């Protein structure tokens, strides 16, 4: 059945069976901008709760001390307030009205608050079990309609009209259906549903113009205006209701005569009137003029601006409300471009509270736009101004999580881990956030990996610090036999991270000099090596013939014929002791000119050398 048909059939019958008013009224109001880690931050949920608080006190018959406002509470505080509320109701007697309001993030099952999750069923169960005669639940959250059982809502329990019984029971109003998203807009500086609910309480919903705003009038007004304002958006909203009430009379939620001041919209063509504060920073209320009656909007004394919305322009007038009713028809209006909007982007005030609120809203806007770093800088500024600002702390934590996401995408795991740890430091209750569970596991994995890398790094550093190779630079050695000759004396210099050794050798038998470069790639005690060098026979300088003969590749050659002018390449293994002593063994190949010929010969020759680095 269409919603309008349900309303037309059910609510009018109900309102014949509702009491005039409960004698004592209590309210618990909750606004929470932050939500869980994966939620897009809200900007106005907390201020929406404050507006409901002001309206209930100004026109709803609620004493200020009986209205509890919770800004971004944890679930333990919510449960404690519900218990305390029931205790206060019992002390006041059973003739009481209780209002519970929530504005914030939620899903189909639970509210997104800090601490161990609290479900819709738990909240509704607490209201249903309350000793108050009438309990009213107002929920301005995404998918809040899921608490009603059926999409679009409707009465789920029958009620009886008995003249001898006052009304009693439970009524639930939600800003959206079970699968719909609730919206807040900059134009209204708040939620669409809550804005129209508050405006309705202040008089815009008084359809019969009797000075009383009933539950029926308030719901119908909020439903129609919310549906109309969101119809053209990507996610239209249709507020819903559920009633578990019986009894007789009208449930009056606001008595306009109880307010000390207000404005009266003129009779005539239906026009939209928007009331802002004098600085055009806050939208206070709105209403529509009616052809056959005056429409009253109740306001607390103060300075305001009234904006009449025409097709292509705004007409703006200033008004000072001091007491009683001010006729809007007597105000002097001046035109203003429609594009200028109802409110300004920045408050033109030096009031630190107003400026602080503006900065918080800007930080949340930046975070919502994906500018996590810029948002974090602004949250830091807010925390320097007010270290105990819980909203800024939670915003800062979410900005850090968004930064961790960015670091994860680019593979900067050290920065990712640092951002997550700082987020938990800023907001320790993130560990209880279901959305943060994935990040908590990720942080543990990163810390574990970093721990392993640290142990490995420490082990490597210890090995390096204990490695005698890295502490030795100069050395001497003796090649017992090698491609450089027999009993060759050497001087060595270590270069390039102690892995490259330049050696100058003197072979007394040839006699001759050898210049070699050896590369030892590993920094361990045992390492392979490769070497290349060249030998020059000094006997040519004074025509001294070297003694001795050697058989090379089946040919008997003089020692000096081989170690005359040659080049050599060698490979082998080196052992390097802790005191600097080393022994090298390997095999090399020598290339030298064949005596009395233009040909070159080659010869494999073993290597064995001893040395000392210091």
Short description:
The protein has 614 residues and is of the alpha+beta class. It has four domains: 3-258, Rossmann fold (3-Layer(aba) Sandwich), CATH 3.40.50.1460; 260-345, Sandwich (Immunoglobulin-like); 352-465, Alpha Horseshoe (Serine Threonine Protein Phosphatase 5, Tetratricopeptide repeat), CATH 1.25.40; 469-613, Lipocalin. It is built from 13 helices and 30 strands.
Textual characterization of the structure:
It is a single chain. This protein has an eight-stranded antiparallel beta barrel with strand order 21-22-23-24-25-28-29-30. Strands 2-1-3-6-7-11 form a six-stranded mixed beta sheet, with helices on both faces. The chain has a five-stranded antiparallel beta sheet with strand order 15-14-17-18-20. The model is unreliable at about 1-20 and about 150-165 (pLDDT under 50). It folds into four domains: about 5-260, Rossmann fold; about 260-345, Immunoglobulins (Immunoglobulin-like); about 350-465, Alpha Horseshoe (Serine Threonine Protein Phosphatase 5, Tetratricopeptide repeat), CATH 1.25.40; about 470-614, Lipocalin (Beta Barrel), CATH 2.40.128. The chain is built from 13 helices and 30 strands. With about 625 residues, it is of the alpha+beta class.
């Amino acid at each position: 059945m269409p919603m309008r048909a349900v309303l037309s059939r059910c609510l009018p019958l109900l309102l014949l069976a509702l009491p005039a008013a409960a004698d004592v009224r209590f309210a618990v109001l909750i606004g929470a901008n932050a939500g869980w880690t994966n939620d897009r931050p809200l900007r106005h949920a907390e201020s929406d709760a404050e507006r409901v608080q002001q309206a209930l006190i100004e026109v709803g018959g609620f004493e200020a001390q009986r209205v509890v406002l919770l800004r971004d509470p944890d679930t333990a505080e919510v449960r404690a307030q519900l218990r305390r509320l029931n205790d206060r109701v019992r002390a006041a007697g059973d003739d009481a009205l209780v209002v519970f309001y929530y504005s914030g993030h939620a899903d189909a099952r639970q509210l997104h608050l800090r601490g161990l999750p609290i479900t819709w069923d738990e909240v509704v169960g607490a209201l249903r079990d309350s000793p108050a005669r009438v309990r009213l639940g107002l929920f301005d959250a995404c998918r809040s309609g899921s608490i009603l059982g059926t999409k679009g809502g409707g009465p789920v329990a029958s009620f009886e009209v008995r003249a001898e019984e006052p009304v009693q029971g439970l009524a639930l109003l939600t800003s959206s259906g079970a699968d719909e998203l609730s919206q807040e807009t900059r134009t209204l500086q708040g939620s669409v549903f809550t804005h129209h609910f508050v405006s309705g309480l202040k008089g815009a919903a008084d359809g019969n113009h009797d000075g009383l705003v009933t539950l029926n009038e308030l719901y119908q007004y909020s439903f129609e205006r919310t549906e109309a304002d969101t119809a053209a958006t990507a996610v239209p909203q249709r507020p819903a209701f559920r009633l578990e009430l019986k009894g007789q009379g009208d449930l009056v939620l606001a008595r306009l005569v109880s307010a000390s001041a207000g404005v009266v919209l003129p009779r005539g063509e239906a026009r939209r009137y928007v009331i802002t504060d004098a600085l055009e920073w806050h939208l206070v209320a709105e209403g529509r003029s009616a052809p056959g009656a005056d429409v009253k909007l109740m306001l607390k004394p103060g300075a305001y601006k009234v904006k009449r919305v025409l097709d292509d322009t705004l007409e703006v007038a200033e008004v000072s409300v001091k007491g009683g009713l001010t006729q809007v028809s007597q105000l002097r209006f001046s035109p203003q471009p429609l594009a200028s909007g109802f409110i300004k982007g920045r408050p033109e005030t030096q009031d630190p509270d107003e400026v602080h609120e503006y900065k918080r809203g800007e930080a949340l806007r930046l975070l919502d736009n994906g500018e996590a770093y810029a948002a974090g800088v602004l949250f830091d500024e807010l925390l320097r101004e007010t270290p105990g600002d819980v909203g800024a702390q939670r915003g800062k934590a979410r900005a850090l999580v968004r930064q961790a996401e960015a670091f994860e995408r680019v593979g900067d795991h050290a920065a990712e881990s640092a951002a997550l740890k700082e987020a938990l430091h800023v907001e320790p209750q993130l560990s209880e956030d279901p959305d943060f569970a994935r990040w908590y596991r990720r942080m543990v994995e990163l810390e574990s990996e970093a721990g392993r890398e640290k142990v490995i790094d420490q082990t490597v550093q210890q090995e390096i610090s204990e490695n005698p190779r890295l502490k030795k630079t100069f050395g001497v050695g003796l090649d017992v036999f090698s491609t450089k000759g027999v009993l060759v004396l050497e001087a060595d210099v270590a270069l390039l991270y102690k892995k490259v050794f330049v050696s100058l050798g003197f072979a007394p038998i040839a006699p001759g000099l050898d210049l070699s470069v050896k590369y030892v790639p590993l920094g361990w005690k045992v390492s392979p090596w490769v070497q290349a060098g060249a030998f020059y026979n000094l006997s040519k300088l004074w025509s001294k013939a070297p003694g001795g003969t050697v058989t090379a590749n089946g040919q008997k050659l003089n020692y000096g014929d081989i170690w005359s002018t040659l080049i050599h390449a060698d490979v082998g293994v080196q052992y390097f002791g802790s005191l600097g002593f080393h022994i090298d063994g390997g095999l090399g190949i020598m290339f030298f000119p064949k005596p009395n010929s233009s040909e070159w010969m080659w010869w494999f020759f073993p290597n064995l050398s001893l040395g000392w680095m210091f």
